[in-house]
Protein 1
Amino acid sequence: DAKTTQPPSMDCAEGRAANLPCNHSTISGNEYVYWYRQIHSQGPQYIIHGLKNNETNEMASLIITEDRKSSTLILPHATLRDTAVYYCIVRGWKTSYDKVIFGPGTSLSVIP
Amino acid sequence: ETGVTQTPRHLVMGMTNKKSLKCEQHLGHNAMYWYKQSAKKPLELMFVYSLEERVENNSVPSRFSPECPNSSHLFLHLHTLQPEDSALYLCASSQAQGSGNTIYFGEGSWLTVV
């Protein structure tokens, strides 16, 4: 399974864009990049995913480099409620199921 | 609401007790997962059921016993636990095939072993 590397923590001013990087240099051609976030004491919440093209939804945008070795999650206008741990994961396909491994993630603090 | 419901949300049990955690998904998925999250640690994958068959067991002690009676329900039976087993236990579900299928998590069950 491809491993991901993220900075342990980041700060962002409220109202500004939060750009969270992720390195996944060993990603395989059929593996997707997924982003989740976990607010304290809650289950991880799905944010967005992509294969090779950039993606956008109501929560965030995902920018994947052309070589697919890294990606950036963008929260366009961060609010205090976006303070959470953000996980970048790569889906590892194994026989009949997906083996999803989480790393330590990035702890994002949105500052007033 | 993610479509994955876990009960109870909080559980306190003694080391000699037997209890169970329950998970139900309303998403029509056919793969279900148990994860453990200890304080300030990443999520650890414990068990995976795909099409009601256990396909992953990550060296989890036998005091944790999973059960998947059908594709919508998943249990984690707990017996003679240790204080270090206190953690957030998370259930998740997805479609069994295709790495493009999203995994959805429940809110978790907080377990305290005293």
Protein 2
Amino acid sequence: AQKITQTQPGMFVQEKEAVTLDCTYDTSDQSYGLFWYKQPSSGEMIFLIYQGSYDEQNATEGRYSLNFQKARKSANLVISASQLGDSAMYFCAMREGRGAQKLVFGQGTRLTINP
Amino acid sequence: DVKVTQSSRYLVKRTGEKVFLECVQDMDHENMFWYRQDPGLGLRLIYFSYDVKMKEKGDIPEGYSVSREKKERFSLILESASTNQTSMYLCASSFLGLEHEQYFGPGTRLTVT
């Protein structure tokens, strides 16, 4: 079974609109971490935001927030007031278990912001 | 600023050649990782290392080996390159611990002809 599922291969959004990128995960561990990364066309992977499984508040970093619904096992990324520079691939990833070091990535969502 | 560097941005090799991809990080991270990225498949872990001379297989280790002789350097080796190893290779590093993000290098686009 897929550990991380991103169901939206591509999304098109008008500039200045908010956008939600979906991510669902599968784990039986109580302790895990969820990450979102951005990959522009230049290829570098940029860390955006982190949510721990025991965090009670949704994580926020500037225009990025993570809508964490633990019971539904979802960790959607919300970008407010989208900008042209937000056009990129976005990856959701999970690290599960206290001793784990590796990340498991979803297949990604390609976001295109239209002017 | 954390910096992860990779030895080449683009590399073209012939089938059967031995290929070395090198990665260096300057933040004293314990963990280092090698991924390959292919369209529609996301990032897949090849190998990782949590300490000098320690290594663990990831999801797709076949056809690859790694070496970590110094904490800051992690090498990926393709013993005999094949065309199905044409891909983007990404190196990453991080501190130990659940909450620490991985920092990525710029990637090496390897073409095997």
